[in-house]
Amino acid sequence: MVEKKKVADKKTGILQPLMFGLLVIAAFAIGSMWTQLKMLKSGNPPAGGPAANQAAQPAAQPEEPKEVSDDVWKELIKDPAAVKGDKKAKVTLVEFTDYQCPFCKRYADETMGQIEKEYVTTGKVKYIARSLPLEFHQFAKQAAEAASCAGVQGKYFEYSDQLFANQDAWSKETDVTKTFAGYAASLGLNGAKFSQCTTKGEQKATVEADAALAKKAGLGGTPSFVINGKILVGAQPFAQFKAAIDEALK
Questions:
Q1: Rounded to an integer, what distance in angstroms lies between the CA atom of residue 105 and that of residue 230?
Q2: Could you tell me if 137 and 95 lie in one domain?
Q3: pLDDT tens for residues 196-207?
Q4: Predicted structure pTM score
Q5: Range(s) of the domain holding residue 126
């Protein structure tokens, strides 16, 4: 009897820690399930789950249209405020830009000059510039209006060059009014007329009309271009523009 009792006590000694371990594991599992259930009910998916992986991926962006309709194209090229090149050129390029956009600056610095040299000055391309100031760029609208005000005095493109050349500086300011007036003065513009134009928002409607045109064309990013009705988006290398323009010239 004594021997049987010893065996029973030995088995009990083995089972007790085993059962305790199983109880700990079960409690952990129940707690984990309870936490996940609460997160699901609150609308927050548990980390690492399928919903979490899906949420971590960026939302799919709608594709830009490959070309605009004939009606929209006619609107894009009608009565442009900023245009250069031969009015009778076979190809018309319409640019939508944001002066605080770094990609627009890249295009202005690296590509626009090549297009102008090879196609605009040779009479092959008529170049129309329009504004598309993006909401998250603090001074984009003010810069667009300033460029349009300079355009009233015949210096739109020269003023645009100033804005892009100094983008890194004025983008960090808290008030760009004096800086923009300074660019106008450096170009020999009438300071009083420029100041009145910018402070009274005389070109606000022009900028808003350009943005509305971009939306109608299905364009949401900058820089965006429409070449004889066909769309090219982004600060593409010169080779991309050359291919598009040469195709339109055929």
A1: 22
A2: yes
A3: 999 999 999 999
A4: 0.74
A5: 70-249
